[in-house]
Amino acid sequence: MEGDYITIKHGPRFEGIPSTIGMFGAIGFIIYGSFLLSTDFSAALVMYFIALVCVFIFLDFRGVNIDFKKNRIRQYRNMLMIHHGKWETISDFNKVSLTLEQFKTMSASSLISQSFNSKSHDSYFVILEGEEGVIPFEIGEYESHSSAKKTMKWMAEKLNLPNEDLYGERKKKAAKIRNKRKAGRKK
Predict the structure, then answer these.
(1) What number of other Cβ atoms are within 10 A of residue 76's Cβ?
(2) Which pLDDT score is estimated for 112?
(3) What are phi and psi of 163, to 5 degrees?
(4) Would you state the torsion angle of the CA atoms of residues 77, 66, 9, 169, taken in this order, to the nearest 10 degrees?
(5) Does the model's pTM come out above 0.70?
(6) How far apart are CA 151 and CA 157, in angstroms?
(7) Directed axis angle between helix 145-159 and helix 166-186, to 10°?
(8) CA proximity to 66, closest of 84, 82, 88
(9) Within its chain, how far is the Cα of 116 from the centroid?
(10) What's the CA gap between 8 and 158, in Å, rounded?
(11) Whose CA is closest to 18, among 61, 47, 65?
(12) How does DSSP assign 124-136, residue by residue?
């Protein structure tokens, strides 16, 4: 085993109320500090320091911690260099799965023009699943099937759990149906 403690970093998310407050706070304290710079240098430095704190809140870093020694896992948020989140027991989960979610988004200009053109994008999720009643645990969201599949297999190996690529199975079934249709047309 690589180690008794693993951290999977997902990077900044830029979402939620704390992130929005952090962004506007950083901008506001930088502007206010710039006004104070010529009159009160020490107050300006304090404003810049507060702006730096707001930037860390704005970035909203997230990830997953796995502590094999204590048999626990958590999704964390990293605010001001401190990881926090609720720990869950690893043994509550019995399978690692990969799923696909398709999201539709609309741009502001399409809403204003009422054209209602939406764009779709795929997100692949690697999750830990347990018995009925156990809330699934999200390991991560990935833009490509191959990177999600790699993470799924790695997690299954690390946690010694079976894995299931639900998207891959659905894709195979769709290919079989297409092939049957093509074969039926050729006759």
Answers:
(1) 20
(2) 58
(3) -130, 155
(4) -110
(5) no
(6) 10
(7) 130
(8) 88
(9) 27
(10) 13
(11) 61
(12) EEEEEEESTTSPP
> For residue 60, which of 26, 113, 10 has the smallest C-alpha distance?
10
Q: Which two tokens stand for residue 56?
A: 């860390």
Block means of pLDDT (10 residues each) for the chain, 187 residues, are 73 72 88 89 91 81 87 83 84 89 59 60 85 85 87 90 83 70 68
What are the tokens at 174? Answer: 């769709």
Of the candidates 73, 53, 51, 55, which has an alpha carbon nearest to the alpha carbon of residue 64?
Answer: 73
Structure tokens at 70: 């204590």
125, 141 in Cβ contact below 8 A? yes
Report how far residue 122's alpha carbon sits from residue 153's, in angstroms, rounded to the nearest whole number. 20
Rounded CA separation 122/141 (Å):
10
User: Can you name the residues that pair with 132 across neighbouring β-strands?
Assistant: none
Alpha carbon distance 187, 181 (integer Å):
10
Query: Measured between alpha carbons, how far is 169 from 130 in angstroms, rounded to an integer?
Result: 20
- CA gap 148, 88 in Å, rounded: 22
pLDDT of 37: 86
Side chain identity, residue 51 = A
pLDDT of residue 1: 41
Query: Can you read off the two tokens belonging to residue 152?
Result: 């799924």
